[in-house]
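TA notes. Do not distribute before section.
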Amino acid sequence: FDINHTAEKLPVYLDDGLVHVTLCADSVWIRYGEEPYYYSYKVIGLPPTIQQIEWETEPVLFSETSKSSPVGEYSINFTPGIAQGFSISYVPGVLTIMKRKVKVYLEDPSGNGFQREYGKENQEFAIRWENNDFVNGENSTVFDQQPIPICSATRTSPAGRYVITINDVKATNYETDCWETSLEITKAPVVMQIKDTTIVYGSINPYNMHFVMEPVDRDITLDYSWKEDKTVPLKTNVSYYSGVGQYPILPDSADFYNF
């Protein structure tokens, strides 16, 4: 112990021929299931003329705890020591046992993260515990309930990335260390159908026409809009001078939000 590390100098009374000092136990905190590596104390009131205490019997620090002691605060006490020429007082410390952290995360069978296409339901998210984090033969049954994955994404949520969180659950001696992950909603494939259009020869400039394109098997709950504008990006090679006949209407490039 470093007895020269003193927080302050208290008066030293030599009327009885003894040097009066106080030993103060340092407070310690650990996690449930652990034991302190060591205890330490400070010596208060040791005069500068005395470099160290020559112990006949050195004091011993202890607490009435074990690896199975529950979360809480416990006293760190002294077994008194003996040193000639010293009158020694003792101040207990506090051993704080804190909750043990247990990692909780989502099982990812693919190893590639969580993905689904726009318009589909979220998959089932399976909870996985880091069982090595439990001690004293305990397991996840010590919690008042099993954690639940929470994701704001629904079937109609736009393509993008959504955070998956895990709700907090309670236990006397444990707390969850939840690893957040995310769900990526990708654009879904879609088949679009262009409606046929008929015009009279020479009656209208085809470049001024608006063609109609609709999805096959349209789901009215989903969003089929695209990013450029609200008109259908279609084109045809027909001109004002094109003769009577059939001409293809071709889709132009379009960047859909969700498809």
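Switch to the second chain here.
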Amino acid sequence: LTRPEALQILPPDLSNMALFIDESHHAAESNQTSTFIQEWLFRNGKVLYGTAIPMHATQNLIIPADVWGYTRSLAIHIKEGYAPKDIRLDFEPCPGGLWEAPNVLSQMAIDLTVTIYQNRGCPYTIVNIPKGESVKNAQRLVDAFLRADPTCEVCHIVGGDPEGIAILEREQELAKKGDANLLKTKVFIACGRFHEGVNWVPCSLVITWGLPRSFPRIGQQHGRSYRLKGPNPDDPVGKWVLKNYPPDRVDVAEIVFLVEA
């Protein structure tokens, strides 16, 4: 629909039609989607915006100021049993810096990543690393985890690695069976893979290299740990409830930012 030719097939009057924009924080950008929305409104159509993030990278509100909006807070979402209750955000300064050279992660920061993981009891973890020599950097992280604990089930899915992606898909399917004892992998290392729409339900800790430049990126990365792992009283079937999940992390959604000291 967002292609220019789509506008040619729309009726001139859309007053009886509504357009729903999911993940509408993307529609705030100056792109084909925003152009299509403007034309839809010009033809008297209604637009419904849906997003978990109210602000775009420009720090402007997604929904125009003159548009009525309904807000459901994270606090209500948590209270009704749809997300973990213990929301944590922390900053971990790296004394030696995050980089040894351009696009080369510092060994001190790599070791600090492993320490953060261990100090929190080795929970199910996603590590987000920046672009630039990302495959080499991801492998260095894998090696560091295995040096610290040769039994650690760690995997990187950087660069579209088919083996790693197959492991992620397997773990996603195992999580749907609802038993944490079936899971094999404890750490996934990624570069942009875990943002919107890609979930690994067991995750309760996200470690991110540096501080993202926008609130949406922070929210999306933290959101990877928001998936419900404990019982939801309004969902007796318990589709996303994992039996045998570590009790000290079942209600935790945590993100740690590695930053320059």
